[in-house]
């Protein structure tokens, strides 16, 4: 399972890959991305930023050095991605394995799918769907065994869980079909005209 710090690091690298921003904006965007159940405090963000600064994945820059930055009375530190950070982001986004489709990591990976090769996107989506299908099969078996033993509200909660997973499996299947369709719709690269036969003259 991916540690929270690794998830934050991937998210920060992805956001800074899109452009420099200061800590307040980073935290706001991260919280939108992570969702209300995983709100990020400054106490979690700034240690992660300091670690990434030490690793030369990101750099601090003065706001006046950032094109388009708006000057304010209270100048905030702006963070931007280094070449090393960009390479690390690309490496992380190209990884395919169980951590790529875990609950903690999948949403972040999906948010930055536009930076990912189609084949990698397909493998991550298929891995996520397989993981959820296994979970769904297990929960449905448990639901069938315990329905007679639990009260109405416990049964409703279990049913709600099953329906949520079923919805995500259908959503993933639609995405996978769309990716496969896009892959087959891609026109072949233009071919060079065949060379003319050599003249016997």
Mind sketching the topology for me?
Blueprint: H1 4-18, E1 21-22, H2 23-34, H3 42-54, E2 58-61, E3 78-81, H4 83-94, H5 103-111, H6 118-146, H7 152-185
Antiparallel strand pairs: 1-3, 2-3
Account of the protein in words:
This protein has 7 helices and 3 strands, in the order H-E-H-H-E-E-H-H-H-H. It has 201 residues and is mainly α. It is globular, with a radius of gyration of 23 Å. Residues 191-201 have low confidence and may be disordered.
Question: What are the defining features of this structure?
Answer:
2 domains; 7 helices; mainly alpha; about 200 residues; Arc Repressor Mutant, subunit A; disordered C terminus
Relative strand content: under 5%
Strands across the major sheet, in which order?
1-3-2
Share in helix? 55-70%
User: What is the H-and-E element order?
Assistant: HEHHEEHHHH
CATH H-level superfamily of the largest domain:
Winged helix-like DNA-binding domain superfamily/Winged helix DNA-binding domain
- The domain count comes to 2
Backbone structural class: mainly alpha
Structure summary:
This protein is mainly α.
């Amino acid at each position: 399972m991916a540690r929270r710090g690794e998830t934050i690091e991937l998210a920060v690298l992805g956001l800074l890959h899109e452009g420099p921003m200061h800590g307040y904006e980073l935290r706001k965007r991260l919280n939108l991305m992570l969702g209300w159940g995983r709100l990020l405090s400054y106490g979690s963000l700034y240690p992660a930023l300091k670690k990434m600064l030490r690793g030369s994945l990101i750099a601090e820059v003065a706001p006046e050095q950032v094109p388009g930055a708006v000057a304010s009375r209270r100048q905030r530190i702006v963070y931007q991605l280094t070449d090393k950070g960009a390479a690390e982001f690309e490496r992380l986004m190209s990884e395919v394995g169980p951590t790529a489709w875990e609950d903690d990591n999948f949403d972040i990976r999906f948010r930055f799918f536009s930076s990912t090769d189609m084949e990698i996107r397909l493998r991550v989506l298929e891995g996520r769907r397989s993981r959820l299908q296994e979970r769904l099969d297990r929960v449905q078996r448990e639901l069938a065994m315990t329905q007679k033993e639990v009260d109405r509200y416990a049964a409703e909660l279990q049913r709600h869980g099953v329906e949520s997973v079923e919805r995500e499996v259908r959503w993933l299947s639609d995405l996978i079909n769309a990716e496969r369709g896009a892959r087959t719709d891609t026109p072949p690269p233009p071919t060079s005209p065949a060379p003319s036969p050599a003249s016997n003259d």
